[in-house]
Write a structure and sequence with these properties.
- This protein is mainly alpha-helical and about 160 residues long.
- Helices cover about 45% and strands about 5% of the residues.
- The chain is built from 3 helices and 3 strands, in the order αααβββ.
- It has helices at about 5-25, 30-50, 55-80, and strands at about 125, 135-140, 155.
- The longest helix is centred in the middle third of the chain and has 27 residues, at about 55-80.
- The protein is elongated.
Length: about 160
């Protein structure tokens, strides 16, 4: 004798198996999630300071690179105009023609004069106290003359 299984019985068997599978596939418990978050926090606390200690050095390098770029543009300015811009004209003379520059053929910088990496203007002096070249200075993180480490001054003549 054959037993005929109708569609309703098949659906009941499938849904019972589905419930058994769902009971076996549980999510993470709150404790497991907390343990993972603590581990991630510890890794961040150990690795984070090592990554961010180099930010200060990279800003100093960026300031030195910008100063070198200014020196190059000032060299081209002097070749065409005959002298460096005066202190009053400043680095802006590399972008806009000063009144005193008859042979100005700029701009000598592609973009506006950038601020230093600490968002302050560079100090420009010509004639300078250190020879025939103009003096370009960034006062570092603290924005004041002197200092050590990230607070140290960055000079074009060093």
């Amino acid at each position: 004798m054959r037993v005929k299984i109708d569609n309703v019985s098949n659906q009941t068997l499938v849904s019972q198996k589905h419930c058994q599978i769902q009971k076996q596939q549980r999510g993470f418990t709150l404790i497991e999630l907390l343990v993972v978050m603590v581990i991630i926090g510890l890794l961040g606390a150990l690795v984070g300071p090592r990554l961010f200690k180099n930010v200060g050095r990279s800003k100093i390098t960026a300031a030195k690179t910008q100063i070198a770029m200014f020196q190059s543009a000032l060299g081209q300015y002097k070749l065409e105009v005959g002298s460096f811009p005066a202190t009053e004209e400043g680095l802006a003379a590399l972008r806009t023609k000063p009144v005193s520059a008859d042979y100005w053929d700029g701009p000598y910088l592609q973009k506006d004069v950038p601020l230093d990496p600490w968002n302050r203007e560079y100090l420009y002096r010509y004639p300078s106290e250190n020879g025939d070249e103009p003096e370009i200075i960034s006062y570092g993180l603290d924005g004041r003359e002197g200092g050590e480490g990230e607070n140290s001054d960055i000079f074009s003549w060093q």
